[in-house]
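Changelog entry: the 2-(3-amino-3-carboxypropyl)histidine synthase record was regenerated in this release. Current contents:
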Amino acid sequence: MSVKLSQISHQLEEIASNLCLQNDMKILPSNYSFEIPKTIWKIRSTNSKYVALQFPEGLIMYSCVISDILEKHTGCDTVIMGDVTYGACCVDDYTAKSMGDF
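Regenerated C-alpha cells:
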C-alpha cells in the first residue's frame, strides 16, 4: 500500500471512529451506506466551503439530516438540490455551477 493511500485510510478510520459522528449517524437507517465518513474526508481534503447535495427520490427524506451532519463535522455550507436523480449519470452539475460558489 502506498504511503498516501495509507494516510488516507488512517484519516478515514479516524473520522469513522469519532463518537460524536457515530452518534449523529444513528438517526440514519442502518440498511443504507451513505458513506458519511468518506464524504467528510473528501470535503475536508478539498477544503470545500460549499457543498451541493442531490439525492434520488427515495432518499430525499434523509437529505436534511445528512446536510446537518456534513455542516457540523466539516464547517461547510450545504444546499439541497430539489431535482430528483435517476442514477449516477444524472448529476445536476450545471445547476450546481450556476449557483456560484456552491
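Strands lie at 50-53, 77-80.
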